[in-house]
């Protein structure tokens, strides 16, 4: 019997061990959590037949996702800015792809999404599937693994994580005044008046009248003006994350704004610009958006401003 249940994890295990042509062929892998006996048996029949055909020369050699991931880790990951994070994310999905042929990538990703539904955030599942697809596509393009693009039929969960939480200038000032820590207080003002991300504010190079960002999320450097209103705050060293995580929640609680995140100050800057009549292209340039589609999320604020203008007409009538 090639299928049995592992006592420690409760998951089915596929194990193939046969002597073919004087040689021993072995394969062993854990099947996805939540699989039924019927699913495990179906996999057993399909995989055993494929391995036997391969061993006897009936079928051509099969490329496996393991090989694709190995090539990707060795050749591509060292070139990536966040390569170490991709390494961890790929490893987190190993139980689903280990020992699986590359042409099964779409099924592997579907099984992972189904098994992790409710256990992980949709964004996490989507990112991990994207990394695995990237690894297999790299191996397909660079090493000819597979007859067709293995990622063509891969699907991932839909992620709807856009936030529309903003604060007014008065609320920003209130938050800053409620924070006893000088660095975090300065950070609050800088984020609101520049639209920078926290990480950008922390590493920005200070020059007279501007913040210089040589390395950004989208890969393009940019210069962010430092308005006179934050001249003092812009000279204060930006605090480390651990300091921020201690003082920021205290300031929010003191102002009754527990739902506000630091990143919402960036959204607030964008919204304030749109409401002031600044075109979306300029807003995107200030925020460092690579795509105009990203900036369009703020377009409805401009519509709100126009509606208010029309309401003013009605009031005068």
What report would you give on this structure?
The strands form 2 sheets. Strands 1-2-3 form a 3-stranded antiparallel sheet, with helices on one face. A 3-stranded antiparallel sheet has the order 4-5-6. The chain is 52% helix and 10% strand. It contains 14 helices and 6 strands. It folds into 3 domains: 1-61, no CATH class; 64-161; 169-316, hpI Integrase, Chain A. The longest helix has 22 residues, at 122-143. Helix 2 (65-75) packs across helix 6 and helix 3 packs across helix 6 (122-143).
Largest sheet: 3 strands, antiparallel
Mean pLDDT: 85
Beta strand %? 5-15%
CATH 2nd-level architecture of the largest domain: Orthogonal Bundle
Provide the low-confidence segments as ranges: none
Structural class by SSE content? mainly alpha
User: What's the arrangement of strands in the largest beta sheet?
Assistant: 1-2-3
Helix and strand pattern: EEEHHHHHHHHHEEEHHHHH
Q: Give the CATH class of the largest domain.
A: Mainly Alpha
Give the CA-based shape.
Answer: elongated
What radius of gyration results from the CA coordinates?
27 Å
Roughly how much helix do the residues carry, as a percent range?
Answer: 40-55%
And the CATH topology of the largest domain? hpI Integrase, Chain A
Termini separation comes to 85 Å
Figure out the total of helices: 14
Task: Count the domains.
Answer: 3
**What do we call the CATH homologous superfamily of the largest domain?**
Intergrase catalytic core
- Strands, count: 6
Show the helix and strand layout.
Blueprint: E1 3-5, E2 12-20, E3 23-30, H1 37-55, H2 65-75, H3 83-92, H4 94-97, H5 105-116, H6 122-143, H7 169-178, H8 182-194, H9 198-203, E4 205-207, E5 210-213, E6 222-225, H10 241-255, H11 264-275, H12 280-287, H13 292-295, H14 299-316
Antiparallel strand pairs: 1-2, 2-3, 4-5, 5-6
């Amino acid at each position: 019997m090639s299928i049995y249940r592992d006592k420690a994890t409760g998951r089915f295990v596929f194990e193939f061990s046969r002597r073919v042509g004087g040689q021993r062929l072995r394969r062993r892998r854990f099947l996805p959590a939540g699989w039924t006996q019927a699913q495990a048996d179906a996999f057993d029949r399909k995989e055993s037949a494929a391995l036997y055909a391969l061993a006897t020369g009936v079928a051509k050699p099969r490329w496996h996702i393991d090989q694709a991931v190995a090539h990707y880790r060795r050749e591509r990951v060292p070139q990536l800015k966040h390569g170490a994070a991709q390494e961890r994310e790929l490893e987190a999905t190993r139980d689903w792809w280990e020992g699986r042929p590359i042409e099964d990538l779409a099924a592997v990703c579907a099984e992972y999404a189904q098994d992790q539904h409710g256990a992980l955030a949709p964004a996490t599942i989507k990112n991990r599937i994207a990394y695995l697809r990237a690894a297999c596509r790299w191996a397909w393009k660079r090493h000819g693994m597979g007859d067709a693009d293995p990622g063509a039929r891969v699907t991932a969960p839909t992620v709807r994580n856009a936030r529309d939480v903003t604060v007014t200038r008065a609320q920003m000032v209130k938050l800053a005044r409620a924070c006893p820590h000088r660095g975090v207080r300065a950070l609050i003002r800088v984020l609101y008046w520049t639209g920078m991300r926290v990480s950008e504010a922390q590493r920005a190079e200070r020059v007279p009248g501007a913040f210089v960002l040589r390395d950004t999320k989208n890969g393009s450097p940019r210069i962010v003006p430092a308005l006179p209103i934050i001249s003092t705050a812009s000279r204060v060293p930006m605090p480390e994350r651990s300091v921020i995580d201690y003082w920021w929640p205290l300031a929010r609680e003191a102002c009754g704004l527990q739902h506000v995140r630091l990143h919402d100050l960036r959204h607030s800057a964008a919204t304030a610009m749109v409401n002031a009549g600044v075109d979306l292209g300029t807003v995107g340039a200030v925020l460092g958006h690579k795509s105009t589609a990203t900036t369009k999320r703020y377009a409805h604020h401009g519509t709100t401003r126009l509606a208010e203008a029309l309401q003013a007409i009605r009031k005068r009538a």
